[in-house]
């Protein structure tokens, strides 16, 4: 008599090895040679007509400032709104500020389709135009769509390959986690980050290509090639870095993080955009009186390969380029990164784990030495020999205009980054960060970019 069981293994122990094999594949076994990628991307750019123009708010089609709260929203009630928030951190009187912010409550899908070719996992990546990208066209996930997009509120074309991520039984889920986006510019925004493997024969659209994880890692060394949405999904890839120990146990790290969330008293209230103090509205922008932080602007877009080929929309434009860095050290040969439990007004759970440094230096230029954020001066003045990874990556091009950050891993000595770091900071291993990223809203989007560089083999520390 044959006995069948309903049970299955809780964990696929082969996944990490399969991703590691793909990360090691940069030449042989790749469907497209990496050397051919730049020409392919240029060809895709030349095949389409893209144009982005700044316009006054009055020329936005379907968007308007509502009389009641001054909210900037779309007539459909979908997509997103630009609203005001008031943030108080700590007990009264506390740190206080008001700012505009994007409110996009719907959860989108960032999905990468995976398929094995000759024993090596490949990932279907898209050459996608986003109006805020400095170079417009970048490498994105297979699917990068808000719910409004894939339910066709805009009455445009279908989102390609969306069925693999929303229809049950179309593939094997390798990663699926709800992750936050930029807490300084989005109010409690989350996207579903997915990697789904298929055995089907997948017709490849001309704007898509198969790449190994290692090839994507090579492209992560190039400025403004791999977009933010691809980076955050790849950070969720199941990996197992070789580590024989850590300064803190996993339980100790989680306990510290829970304590950080508990000790921060953060209150966020939605307020009328017209009552956001220290911000002024002109016909073309909403900006800070000190010309710091960011502005809200409007653009007109043409892109003949998008689901809708022309539209207008607001975008957030930061005042200058940011600097995002993990300070690193090795303890008894095991690499560690210094994470920061960072408060941002748009986070759902008060704090998330951020890189050691995550700032726009221009916002602090008026402050004297000793009054700037911890480790910022060290990272900015670091000797190049200490920098193991550096590239400029743009942030979410669908909502942010020319939002770029310089991403780095910077090695430190004990006198520059002590064993016992300042309050709010903690040494963790890349493996510990990988385990935490499996939980939604633990690791912020900037830290996930640097984790993606590790997962794809672009960075070593």
From TrEMBL:
InterPro entries recorded: EvaA-like (IPR005212), EvaA-like_sf (IPR038153)
A matching Pfam family: Hexose_dehydrat
Superkingdom of the organism of origin: Bacteria
A GO term for molecular function: lyase activity
Chain segments annotated as coiled-coil in the UniProt record: none
Domain dTDP-4-dehydro-6-deoxy-alpha-D-glucopyranose 2,3-dehydratase: start-end pairs: 36-236, 251-454
Protein name per the record: NDP-hexose 2,3-dehydratase family protein
Organism: Streptomyces muensis
């Amino acid at each position: 008599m044959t006995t069948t069981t309903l049970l299955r293994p809780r964990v696929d122990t082969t996944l990490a090895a399969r991703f590691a094999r793909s990360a090691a594949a940069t030449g042989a076994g790749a469907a497209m040679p990496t050397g051919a990628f730049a020409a392919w991307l240029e060809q895709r750019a030349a095949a389409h007509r893209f144009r982005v123009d700044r316009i006054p708010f009055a020329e936005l089609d379907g968007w308007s400032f509502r009389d009641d709260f001054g909210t900037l929203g779309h007539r459909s009630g979908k997509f997103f709104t630009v609203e005001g928030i008031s943030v108080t951190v700590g007990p009264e009187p506390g740190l206080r500020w008001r700012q505009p912010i994007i409110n996009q409550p719907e959860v989108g899908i960032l999905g990468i389709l995976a398929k094995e070719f000759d024993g090596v996992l490949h990932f279907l990546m898209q050459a996608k135009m986003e109006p805020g990208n400095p170079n417009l066209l970048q490498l994105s996930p297979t699917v990068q769509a808000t719910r409004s997009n894939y339910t066709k509120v805009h009455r445009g074309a279908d989102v390609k390959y969306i069925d693999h991520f929303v229809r049950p039984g179309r593939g094997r889920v390798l990663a699926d986690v709800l992750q936050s986006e930029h807490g300084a510019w989005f109010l409690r925004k989350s996207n579903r980050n997915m990697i789904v493997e298929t055995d089907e024969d997948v017709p490849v659209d001309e704007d898509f290509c198969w790449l190994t994880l290692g090839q994507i890692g090579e492209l992560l060394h190039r400025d403004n090639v791999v977009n933010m949405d691809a980076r955050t999904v790849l950070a969720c890839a199941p990996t197992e870095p070789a580590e024989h120990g850590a300064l803190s146990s996993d339980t100790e790290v989680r306990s510290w993080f829970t304590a950080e969330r508990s000790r921060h008293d953060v209150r966020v209230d939605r307020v009328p955009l017209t009552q956001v103090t220290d911000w002024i509205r002109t016909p073309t922008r909403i900006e800070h009186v000190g010309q710091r932080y960011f502005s809200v602007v409007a653009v007109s877009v043409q892109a003949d390969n998008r689901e809708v080929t022309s539209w207008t929309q607001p975008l957030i434009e930061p005042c200058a380029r940011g600097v995002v860095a993990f300070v690193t050290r090795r303890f008894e040969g095991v690499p560690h990164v210094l994470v920061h439990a960072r408060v941002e007004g748009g986070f759902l759970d008060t704090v998330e784990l951020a890189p050691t440094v995550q700032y726009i230096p221009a916002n602090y230029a008026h402050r004297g030495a000793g009054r700037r954020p911890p480790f910022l001066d060290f990272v900015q003045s670091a000797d190049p020999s200490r920098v193991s990874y550096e590239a400029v990556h743009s942030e979410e091009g669908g909502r942010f205009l020319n939002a770029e950050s310089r991403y780095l891993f910077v090695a430190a000595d004990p006198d520059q980054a002590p064993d016992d770091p300042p309050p709010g900071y903690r040494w963790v291993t890349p493996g510990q960060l990988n385990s935490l990223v499996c939980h939604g809203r633990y690791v912020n989007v900037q830290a996930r970019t640097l984790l993606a560089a590790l997962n794809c083999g672009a960075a070593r520390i």
